[in-house]
Design a protein that fits this description.
Mean pLDDT: 92
Order of helices and strands: HEHEHEHEEHEHEHEHEHEHHHHEEEEH
Strand content: 15-25%
Radius of gyration: 20 Å
Structural class: alpha/beta
Low-confidence stretches: 1-34
CATH class of the largest domain: Alpha Beta
C-alpha cells in the first residue's frame, strides 16, 4: 500500500528470514571478483522493521529471488547484480537519508522503495533531483504516478484509485451502499478513502469514517462508533499489524455477524495473522499465486517455493518485477543511465515470465504506472486438507487501465530538455 503491512512473529522477523537490517549484498564479492566485472548495483529501501515489516520483507525476498535467477543467466548487460538493502524504519527522514547514502556513497544504478507511500514519495524527490532511475514496487498513493509524476519514477503496485474503483462495484453488490471506513491517517489512507468515496457517491452511497494512526492497535472505540452507524459493510483500510488488530477486534465484538467486510487490500501477509473467522470479505489482490491455467505462474511458484521456502505473495511479485524491469530497461536502452532506461521502459509490455498473469501487462507511457490485472474476489479460510495459502478465490480480473484512465491521473510527463 504505500505502506502496507507488517505482520508478526517468526516468519515476520526479518533477520531470521535472512534479510539483514541495513545494507546487504546479494551477489557476493567472490562472484564479482571471479568474474572481474563491476556489478550493477540496485538499492532497495523498505520498512524492514515496524508495522509494515512483513510486506517489506516479502518484497525484498522477491527481489532477492530475481537477482539469484538473473545472475545465473548473466545478470544485466553481462554484469552481475548486487542488491543493497536499507531499512527505512517506516520513517520519512530515515528513508530519505538512506536514499542519499545509496546514491552518493554506494553509487547504485537504480533504487526501489518504499512500501510506505509517504516515504516513496519523498525518495522520489531525491532520485529526481539526482537523476537516478527509481521503481516504486509497493507504495500506492496516487500522486506518485499522478499529479507529481517524474520522468525517472515507475511504479508496479496499483494506485489507490485503481484498487478502489475495481472493488467498489463488488462491495455494493454483495453488501450495500451504506459504508463505514477505518482508514490510516497518512497519504495512502487519504487517497484511498477519497477514491472510495468518489466511487461510492457515483452509485448513490453514503458513509462515515474514522482516521486512525498508522500504528494503531486499539480499535474498540472506533468499532463501537461504526457499529452504531449500522453500515452494510465496514471497510478496513488499515495495513499490516494495525489491520490485523482491527480484524481481530471486529470479530471479538461480534460485528462479523452484523455487517459485511471488505476494502482495497487484505494481503496474504495479513490474512495469515488473523483467525479463520476473520478471514473473510471482498478485496483486491494485486497478484495471485494460484493461476493453474498460466504455465509461467505454475513454474514460478514451484521454483520460488523450492528456493525461498514459502508461497510467493503479491509483494514477492513486486520485487520480482522490479529487478526484471531494470534488466529489461537497461538492455533495451543498452545503458544504465536513468533517462535512456526510462524512455526504454515507458510503454513496454512485460514478457510472460515476468508479468505472471494473462493478458497484456505494460508500463503506461503517460504516467509510468504498471497496468496489470486487478484480482477481485473474496477471502476465506483455507480448505481443510488443502493448501494453507489457498485463502482467496478470484471472481474477476479487472484490467488496470479500465479503472484508471490516463486522463484521470493528473500526470503530465516531461523529460529533461
Amino acid at each position: 500500500m504505500e505502506s502496507k503491512a507488517a505482520i508478526g512473529v517468526g516468519r515476520r522477523t526479518l533477520i531470521k528470514t535472512g534479510v539483514a537490517v541495513g545494507a546487504m549484498s546479494l551477489a557476493g564479492p567472490a562472484i564479482i571478483t571471479a568474474r572481474g566485472e563491476v556489478p550493477v548495483k540496485l538499492g532497495y529501501i523498505d520498512p524492514l522493521t515496524g508495522v509494515y515489516s512483513a510486506l517489506a520483507q516479502d518484497e525484498v525476498m522477491g527481489a532477492r529471488h530475481a537477482v539469484k535467477v538473473l545472475n545465473k543467466k548473466g545478470g544485466i548487460l553481462g554484469r552481475p547484480i548486487e542488491l543493497l538493502v536499507e531499512d527505512s524504519a517506516n520513517d520519512v527522514g530515515t528513508g530519505v537519508a538512506k536514499a542519499h547514502k545509496l546514491i552518493d556513497k554506494d553509487h547504485v544504478n537504480a533504487i526501489f522503495g518504499d512500501v510506505n507511500s509517504g516515504i516513496a514519495y519523498a525518495i522520489a524527490g531525491v532520485t529526481h533531483e539526482k537523476k537516478v532511475f527509481q521503481i516504486v514496487p509497493g507504495g500506492h498513493t496516487d500522486p506518485i504516478t499522478g499529479k507529481d509524476c517524474y520522468w525517472n519514477v515507475f511504479r508496479i503496485c496499483n494506485t489507490t484509485s485503481m484498487d478502489a474503483n475495481a472493488i467498489t462495484p463488488e462491495l455494493v453488490k454483495h453488501f450495500g451502499k451504506r459504508w463505514y471506513f477505518i482508514t490510516p491517517n497518512y497519504s495512502y489512507g487519504h487517497t484511498l478513502q477519497a477514491a472510495f468515496i468518489k466511487a461510492l457517491k457515483k452509485l448513490g452511497g453514503e458513509y462515515q469514517y474514522a482516521m486512525m494512526p498508522i500504528n494503531a492497535s486499539d480499535f474498540s472505540a472506533t468499532l463501537i462508533k461504526a457499529k452504531a452507524y449500522k453500515p452494510n459493510v465496514l471497510l478496513n483500510n488499515m495495513g499490516g499489524l494495525a489491520q490485523i488488530d482491527c480484524m481481530k477486534q471486529f470479530v471479538q465484538f461480534g460485528m462479523d455477524k452484523q455487517m459485511g467486510l471488505g476494502g482495497a487490500l487484505f494481503e496474504i501477509e495479513d490474512i495469515e495473522g488473523v483467525p479463520p473467522v476473520a478471514q473473510r470479505g471482498w478485496w483486491d489482490m494485486e497478484w495471485w499465486w494460484n493461476q493453474p491455467n498460466v504455465p509461467e505462474v505454475v513454474s514460478f511458484v514451484k521454483d520460488f517455493r523450492e528456493a525461498e521456502g514459502k508461497t510467493p505473495t503479491a509483494r514477492c511479485w513486486f520485487g520480482w518485477v522490479a529487478v526484471h524491469s531494470v534488466k529489461l530497461a537497461a538492455e533495451k536502452a543498452k545503458s544504465l543511465k536513468a533517462e535512456p532506461m526510462a524512455k526504454a521502459l515507458a510503454g513496454m509490455e512485460l514478457p510472460p515470465e515476468v508479468k505472471l498473469q494473462p493478458g497484456k501487462v505494460f508500463y503506461r507511457a503517460g504516467d509510468h504506472e504498471l497496468m496489470p490485472n486487478i484480482f477481485v474476489g473474496h477471502v476465506h479460510p483455507a480448505p481443510k486438507g488443502g493448501d494453507k495459502n489457498d485463502v482467496f478465490t478470484v471472481a474477476d480480473l479487472v484490467p488496470g487501465d479500465k479503472v484508471w484512465p490516463l486522463a484521470d491521473t493528473g500526470c503530465h510527463m516531461s523529460y529533461p530538455a
